[in-house]
Amino acid sequence: AVAGSTVELGCSARGDPAPQVQWHKERGDLPWGRHEVDREHTLRLYAVTSADAGAYVCTAQSQLGTAAATTFLRV
User: Fold this and answer.
1) What is the model's pTM?
2) With contact defined as beta carbons under 8 Å apart, do 24 and 67 qualify?
3) CA distance 9 to 37
4) By CB neighbour count within 10 A (0-12 exposed, 13-18 middle, 19+ buried), where does 22 fall?
5) Superfamily covering domain 7-73
6) 52 in helix, strand or coil?
7) pLDDT at 16
8) Per-residue pLDDT of the chain in tens (75 residues, 90 and over written 9)
9) What pLDDT does 64 receive?
10) How far apart are CA 2 and CA 52, in angstroms?
């Protein structure tokens, strides 16, 4: 990603019952005041900086179990 741009990281999780979806950064916190997660579980990072680079993990959890996927961001 280019520094200063907006990045969208998708996460697809479906089930019955619908799973709870959470995003976190593998080492550190999501950028304070510069991120949001929409109804489709897409994580948006605004005005990214080199400090935002790293691994981001999407975790889906329901009564049936837990699944996780990791994506890597380079700035």
Assistant:
1) 0.90
2) no
3) 9
4) middle
5) Immunoglobulins (2.60.40.10)
6) helix
7) 85
8) 999 999 999 999 888 888 999 999 998 899 999 999 999 999 999 999 999 999 999 999 999 899 999 999 999
9) 86
10) 11
Nearest to 67 by CA among 29, 26, 25, 11: 11
The dihedrals phi and psi of 45, each to the nearest 5 degrees, come to -115, 125
CA distance 23 to 30: 8
Closest CA to 53 of 23, 22, 28, 21: 28
> Tokens in use for 68?
């996780």
Q: Which pair of tokens denotes residue 23?
A: 């995003």
